[in-house]
């Protein structure tokens, strides 16, 4: 029972992050399931089954708050479902020994991407109103869906930054659209895993615990997307994922370290993580101050214009 309560808190925290950032539910949940000894394919299958419910709730919540562009959902979600099914099929055929370091490597790369992306670049603010084309969204969805299933997460980390970088959709609608389209990806990946694995290794108690926590967090996250500084949250999640999956690779002897060398690597990662959080915090405060100055200047100009 205690383990299930912990998983419910994991689901709540992962969905809170995912609904606010447009990424990291799968990466966070899968990382923690791998850390407690779940096999890679079973971990990804468990997370995707839970995501059927959490992504539906998240999509409805984002829709209610006006955060969804349905053209983007259709154009990226359907190819994403195809990619997810293919990825689930591939992962189901790999042995646990082969799949564990592969998944940890993918998750580590996604963690590095999150940390660098949100620490250095933040979120673009300039918008180009030209619509996003199918020729861009379809390949993006296919790749993101495949990475999501094979890595236990990746739909958001691949899809959200790519669409944000175009500057053609405001951040809250990017996050809402990616979260909503992930419902299609979760269904497709789950179907692929069930065909490839059956129910072997999937603990429905864990699925329901992750689902319960995610359902509670979904509406809160859709509301918080307007308030929480994404730079800080992205850096925090990225650092945690890097640390956890580096540990997995060291334990699998993919990274051949031991003793003092291992401690030194962990210390370096923690130091980098703290530095990234400090940089992200400072950048967010600077952005907030600049926005406040612009608002104050605009307010002062109104009386003079009327005069």
Automatic annotation (TrEMBL):
<dbReference type="Pfam" id="PF01925">
    <property type="entry name" value="TauE"/>
</dbReference>
<feature type="transmembrane region" description="Helical">
    <location>
        <begin position="257"/>
        <end position="284"/>
    </location>
</feature>
<feature type="transmembrane region" description="Helical">
    <location>
        <begin position="204"/>
        <end position="225"/>
    </location>
</feature>
<keyword id="KW-1003">Cell membrane</keyword>
<dbReference type="InterPro" id="IPR002781">
    <property type="entry name" value="TM_pro_TauE-like"/>
</dbReference>
<feature type="transmembrane region" description="Helical">
    <location>
        <begin position="72"/>
        <end position="92"/>
    </location>
</feature>
<keyword id="KW-0472">Membrane</keyword>
<feature type="transmembrane region" description="Helical">
    <location>
        <begin position="98"/>
        <end position="116"/>
    </location>
</feature>
<comment type="similarity">
    <text>Belongs to the 4-toluene sulfonate uptake permease (TSUP) (TC 2.A.102) family.</text>
</comment>
<keyword id="KW-0812">Transmembrane</keyword>
<feature type="transmembrane region" description="Helical">
    <location>
        <begin position="136"/>
        <end position="155"/>
    </location>
</feature>
<dbReference type="InterPro" id="IPR051598">
    <property type="entry name" value="TSUP/Inactive_protease-like"/>
</dbReference>
<keyword id="KW-1133">Transmembrane helix</keyword>
<feature type="transmembrane region" description="Helical">
    <location>
        <begin position="231"/>
        <end position="250"/>
    </location>
</feature>
<dbReference type="GO" id="GO:0005886">
    <property type="term" value="C:plasma membrane"/>
</dbReference>
<protein>
    <recommendedName>
        <fullName>Probable membrane transporter protein</fullName>
    </recommendedName>
</protein>
